[in-house]
Amino acid sequence: MKKFAFFPGCVLEGSAKEALDATIKVAAALEIELVEIPGWTCCGASHVQDMDPMAALAINARNMALAEKMGLPILTVCNTCTLMLRQAKSALDGDDRLKEKVNRVIASGGYEYVGFSDITHLLWVLAEDTAFWQRRISRPLTGTKVAAYYGCHILRPQKIMNFEDSANPRSLETVIRAVGAEPVDFPDKLQCCGFHAFWTAEKDAVFLTGKHVDNAVKAGADMMATPCPLCQMQLDMYQPEGRQAVHSTAEIPVLHLAQLIGLGLGFSPAELGINRHVSAASKVMLNQ
Amino acid sequence: MPTMTFTIRRFVEAKSFSRDYSFEYMAGNTVLDGLIFIKEKLDPSLAFTASCRNGVCGACALRVNGQAVLACETAIESLAARYHSARLTIAPLGNFTVLRDLVVDWQPKLDRMKQVKPWLIPQDAFSADTGCRQSQTDFDKIRGYTDCILCGACVSECSKLAADSADFLEPFAFVKAQKYVADSRDDAPLKHLDPAIQAGLWRCMHCEECTAKCPKSLDPAEDIAKLRVMAFKKAMVNSAGAQHAQAFYEDINDIGRLNEAKLAIRTDGIMKSLTRVGLAYRLMKVDKLDPFHLPEPIKNISKVQKILKAAKEADKS
Ligand code: SF4
Ligand code: SF4
Ligand code: FES
Predict the structure, then answer these.
(1) Ligand 1: does its nearest atom lie under 6 Å from the Cβ of B162?
(2) Of all atoms in ligand 3, which is nearest to the CA of residue B49?
(3) For a substitution probing ligand 3, which of B30, B33, B48, B56 has the most ligand atoms within 8 Å of its CB?
């Protein structure tokens, strides 16, 4: 039995609720115990450091301090949450004076950061050791071609994330194979979805969406899968605009990692909230 | 000796094609050694640039399997191990105009970089007699920036440049801007910051490709964040990007978490948000957006507020 302090992140409470439902179902089925960190806050979402870097550090020091009280390593299901937390951890653990300073800041709320909680992502837990869960795959996705879309923040910067080689990662392909599906290589798999610049560079973000989706379909994929709910949103919600931007007709379902595993575990698409997707949700239904 | 095949993307007189070159290599041979061997023994028509062969001049950056590296610093055996392959695709840097084969056009990039005035604008107090003195602590804040060798590796996979380079500068230009904004001897940080804002500071996608690729361990993405912090300090916040960052900060302060339903209006303003009604409808249809969902504050929100206040104070000290 694996047990983690669970950091769901904001979008799983809002527009990516289906990812939360799928994560909870899949974790239970795989006997991964997730205990939600009580009172966690937003990780800063890669924006808060632009306004107040000390605040960004302090809120994540608090998040980690809460997990330390639980005596558990942190598990997230969002690339950006993982990066924000690990970035704060690496800054604090690497600089005693900074750590003291930040500890003085969070002491105002009664917290202390020590630094013994590790931060991992569901993808890493699943890829590190497939043996503990692969045998539970009751409905392998045999013959389904899945384009592995990593997203940025689970890979880069290498020195912070460091689970695997950021130029040639294997974890997502490992997991796709373990559910019985076939990973499809496509040129965009390590590229950015543009989500974080959606408000400032909308046409570029939409163009990237169109390009990634088009290339995944051209590579013969039946679906895309991503460990990041932000990538999922960008690639799913904006396919209509994306198609226009790159003059393509490509339409493809984009699954959250937990949904992919969930299908293999025998959950129906509806149970995994795939009906809440904007693009090509029905194509997932047909495959089942 | 093991054999390696380079599939080289060639570009000669407006014609693009790929050509394979196989050769034997020894431990320690670099990609540049491979290219030199090809040029000397197999195909003298191959064009590439390199000078120092020692990671100093920045001339030899190119793409291996789609990822920018310095050819002179990258061992063939490490790439063979990374990709489990005896074949590598060698291409010119991305987001550059190719002149021939692996040679790219730097002139437009250097011209664009000038927008941020990448030079010291000295304070009036300095003179030819007394010089531009600086404390060790202040010097330490900027010394790392001189490591940039203008190799262009940070440019190659930049997501924003790949989508559109017309309204965004190369990552290294932001590094230069931050270098002078951070220099205590500079008299006019705004003369660097303002053009950086005009040239897309808030359009960076935060993809970290630049930081991942820099062979000198510089961190262009972090410098972009530092420039944004300075924009806040100088109250230059009249942009969607700054409003967006502020919206996140305020949500954390108010309820601890993001309030998605309000985000669009606070980032874009009411008018522009109305143009997104079609999207909102699409999202509501699948229950992705609930305009009536008003998240409750987390239980210990007052503690979070205290922390944010203390963070502000700590920043001043
Ligand atoms: S982080 Fe910004 S500057 Fe760096 S590569 Fe990505 S988009 Fe370009
Ligand atoms: S910042 Fe790094 S990658 Fe970019 S030009 Fe300078 S040395 Fe090269
Ligand atoms: S040849 Fe000078 S950096 Fe590679």
Answers:
(1) no
(2) 1
(3) B56
All residues of chain A having their beta carbon less than 8 Å from the beta carbon of residue B287 are 276
Q: What ipTM did this prediction achieve?
A: 0.95
- Distance (Å, whole) CA B174 – CA B154: 11
- Joined together, the tokens standing for residue B254 give 């108010």
* Shortest alpha-carbon distance between residue A227 and chain B (Å): 15
CA pair distance A16, A230, nearest whole angstrom: 8
**Phi, then psi, of B284 in degrees rounded to 5:** -65, -35
Whose CA is closest to atom 7 on ligand 2? Answer: B148
Nearest CA distance, A149 vs chain B (angstrom): 14
Burial label for A76, CB within 10 Å (0-12, 13-18, 19+), is buried
Question: What pTM value is reported for the model?
Answer: 0.95
Write the DSSP string, A15-83.
TTHHHHHHHHHHHHHTTEEEEEPTT-----TTTGGGT-HHHHHHHHHHHHHHHHHHT--EEES-HHHHH
| pLDDT over 90 at B277, yes or no | no
Q: For A125-180, how does the pLDDT look when each residue is reduced to its tens digit (9 = 90+)? A: 999 999 999 999 999 999 999 999 999 999 999 999 999 999 999 999 999 999 99
What are the residue ranges in chain A where pLDDT is below 50?
A: 288
CB B39 within 8 A of CB B1: no
